[in-house]
Inverse folding.
């Protein structure tokens, strides 16, 4: 059985050099990426971007801007990783997600949240990167995203407890670490 793409002419070969094609921008390959972080949120954000472009709510950058971006990424990749075909797919999770989120219109505005919801702003700035931070606003926002972010540390911490006793319920791991560190000094 042969797999073909009906949208690509049979006699037409797309020239690729290190996984980049400078002249073709009509085919999206979702998830063909190697983030330094989780791949599933990146694939979801790529899908959201594709759908927004396809629906006409978001436009692709001009071709010359895309070419400059490809060249910029190539130079960054060469500086950061070994020169190999494998590393052409590497991206930094946080930077890449922010870039896509900005294009889709779902990147959280930290300054706005700092004045309107300081607790949420603190979590966005100082706690882990959670994919649902990109569901706070913009297309396909989720009303539960704020609560999910606010409860993220509690859910993560409670899942790491082996059992719930009076002692474990009143202390957090960092407190125990400091306690044992103090005992080692004595």
């Amino acid at each position: 059985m042969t797999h073909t793409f009906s949208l690509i002419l049979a006699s037409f070969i797309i020239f690729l050099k290190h996984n980049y094609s400078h002249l073709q921008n009509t085919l999206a390959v979702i998830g063909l990426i190697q983030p330094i972080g989780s791949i599933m949120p990146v694939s979801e954000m790529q899908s959201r971007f594709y759908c927004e472009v396809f629906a006409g709510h978001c436009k692709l950058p001009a071709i010359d801007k895309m070419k400059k971006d490809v060249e910029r990424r190539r130079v960054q990749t060469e500086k950061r990783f070994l020169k190999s075909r494998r590393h052409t797919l590497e991206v930094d999770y946080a930077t890449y997600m922010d870039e896509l989120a900005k294009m889709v219109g779902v990147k959280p505005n930290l300054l706005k949240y700092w004045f309107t919801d300081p607790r949420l702003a603190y979590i966005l700035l100082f706690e882990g990167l959670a994919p649902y931070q990109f569901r706070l606003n913009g297309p396909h926002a989720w009303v539960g995203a704020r609560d999910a972010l606010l409860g993220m540390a509690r859910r993560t911490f409670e899942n790491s407890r082996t059992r719930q006793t009076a002692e474990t319920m009143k202390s957090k791991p960092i407190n125990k670490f400091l306690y044992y560190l103090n005992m080692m000094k004595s």
About this structure: Residues 1-106 form one domain. The first helix runs from residue 39 to 54. The mean pLDDT is 81. The CA atoms of residues 1 and 10 lie 16 Å apart.
